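in:
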């Protein structure tokens, strides 16, 4: 072997070792920097899902949202865009999995609702009540030039989606409600009893609280890396006072605010619950189906509150089959 080749091999090996060292250093830094870890992981998740982070101004405030599709796909000319609304305490990122299912054939958008994710209320601003959120959703739809939309809402987002469809029937083509709150259930489970008594079972102020909430939400809670856990707990603690005020502002609506609204919904509607839901009791399915004219109902036996995590294949089949009959 010539001396020149040995020199080249040595230089290549050194370059590789330096690169590996920098990667290791970067991983160590990220692991000990929760905010940076969250930023990198969510950026990777967006990229893998084929989604984009975009911003738009709504009511004078810059709003971040995830977007997919919109790439001149011929199918998008035939299918309505989908507006996805996340649940309490989460953010637009919670809807990435469902957006990935839908984005190949239509435009999809998921905003951070006011007070959540990267869309906190301005300093001194009062939390929105249900009607404030409903008006905000319509303002977001208009600002993003979505036209008539299909709306998919989960948990609190499901309750708001139903109320939105009732208030703005011309804006909604089809409606999917996943584990929606917003009505008194025939069976009041411990979670809903605590909410009715003035508590907040989703309050997080410690790592143990995070574990408790994860067990409430999922049949099989997903693993949460340590840096991400630290980020979630720190953000919850930072916003705890505001979240407490938000709970009080929207509590009446989440308990029974849709009782008088369902009859006004004209969009074809699919309501889905997980049989093992510990938050919005699955007995809520029947009041929703009875209250919305022509609504379809589905119970997923293997799922808890977050149906698209616990039963992704069944949720995807139901969602795609309903939106694209």
């Amino acid at each position: 072997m010539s001396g020149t080749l040995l020199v080249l091999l040595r230089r290549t090996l050194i370059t590789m070792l330096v690169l590996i060292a920098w990667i290791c250093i970067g991983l160590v830094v990220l692991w000990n920097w929760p905010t940076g870890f969250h930023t990198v992981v969510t950026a990777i998740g967006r990229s893998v899902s084929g989604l984009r982070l975009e911003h738009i101004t709504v009511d004078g405030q810059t709003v971040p949202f995830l977007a997919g599709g919109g790439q001149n796909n011929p199918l998008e000319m035939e299918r309505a865009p989908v507006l996805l609304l996340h649940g309490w305490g989460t953010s637009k990122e919670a809807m990435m999995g469902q957006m990935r299912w839908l984005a190949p054939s239509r435009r999809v958008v998921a905003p951070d609702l006011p007070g959540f994710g990267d869309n906190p209320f301005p300093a001194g601003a009062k939390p929105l009540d249900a009607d404030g959120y409903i008006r905000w959703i319509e303002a977001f739809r208009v600002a993003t030039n979505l036209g008539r939309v299909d709306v998919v809402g989960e948990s609190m987002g499901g309750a708001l989606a139903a109320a939105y469809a009732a208030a703005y029937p011309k804006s909604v083509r089809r409606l999917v409600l996943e584990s929606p709150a917003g009505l008194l259930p025939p069976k009041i489970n411990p979670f809903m009893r605590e909410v009715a008594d003035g508590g907040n079972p989703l309050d997080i102020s410690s790592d143990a609280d995070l574990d408790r909430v994860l067990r409430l939400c999922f049949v099989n809670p997903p693993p949460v890396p340590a840096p991400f856990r630290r980020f979630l707990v720190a953000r919850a603690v930072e916003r705890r006072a505001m979240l407490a005020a938000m709970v009080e502002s929207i509590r009446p609506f989440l308990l029974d605010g849709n009782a008088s609204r369902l009859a006004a919904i004209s969009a074809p509607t699919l309501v889905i619950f997980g049989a093992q839901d510990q938050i919005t009791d699955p007995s809520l399915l029947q009041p929703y189906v009875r209250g919305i004219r022509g609504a379809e109902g589905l119970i997923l036996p293997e799922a808890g509150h977050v149906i698209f995590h616990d039963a992704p294949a069944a949720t995807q089949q139901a969602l795609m089959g309903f939106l694209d009959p």
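note: The two ends are 67 Å apart (CA to CA).
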